[in-house]
Specification:
By secondary structure, the chain is of the alpha/beta class. The chain has helices at 3-11, 22-33, 66-77, 95-99, 112-125, 173-191; strands at 14-18, 38-43, 82-87, 104-107, 131-134, 147-152, 155-159.
Length: 197
């Protein structure tokens, strides 16, 4: 595939990002900078001051819906990008409708129960839909511990698989960004037809 063919494929792609926090906001920016044409941003939350240490928001975004604030930033990066901003909490009953039509789904939520629900819903209802998910990026461990693995036909897992924020480990922007970059690059490789991360 030539460079122009790769660019065209990315431009014609749609990626659904569930969660617009530390992972999702940074994944979105990297995908837009890489030329992905359409992003579906799905989140129900608002920007808080405590988010600013690792999420792609600014002090004047505090109190705004994450989808709205992120949309404004992404349009500053690439005015031509198509954004679908969906303000809702994802549940097992609405997830399929929210991601149908996307080429790849990115799971970028915090709670393990929500992560499991998203993975189960996508894998059961949309088995051909590639899913990029993450687990383990908290703490100050080496960035080299964060890896990308293909764990099933269409499921890709990013992280160190052990450093859960609930274990009392803080979230540092640098490590979150490494995981976000892994997620974004797995998405790009999947969109370009690669099977392995």
């Amino acid at each position: 595939m030539t460079e122009s063919e790769e660019r065209a494929r990315l431009h014609s792609a749609t990626v659904a990002i569930i969660g617009c926090g530390g992972l999702g906001s940074n994944v979105a920016a990297m995908l837009v900078r890489s030329g992905v044409g359409t992003l579906r941003l799905i989140d129900f939350d608002r920007v808080e001051e405590s988010n600013l240490n690792r999420q792609l928001y600014f002090r004047d975004d505090i109190g705004r819906l994450k989808t709205e604030a992120l949309g404004d930033t992404l349009r500053r990066i690439a005015p031509e990008v198509t954004l679908i901003e969906v303000v809702t909490r994802v549940t097992s009953s609405n997830l399929v409708g929210l991601v149908t039509g996307a080429d790849v789904v990115v799971e970028a939520v915090d709670g393990p129960a929500d992560k499991a629900m998203i993975a189960n819903a996508v894998c059961c209802a949309l088995p051909d839909m590639p899913l990029v998910t993450a687990s383990g990026m908290a703490g100050s461990g080496s960035a080299n511990e964060i890896v990308s693995e293909r764990i099933a036909d269409n499921v890709y897992l990013v992280g160190d698989l052990s450093s859960d924020v609930r274990a009392g480990l803080p979230l540092y922007s640098s490590r979150v960004m490494v995981a976000a970059a892994h997620e974004a690059h797995v998405v790009i490789r999947v969109l370009l037809g690669h099977q392995e991360p």
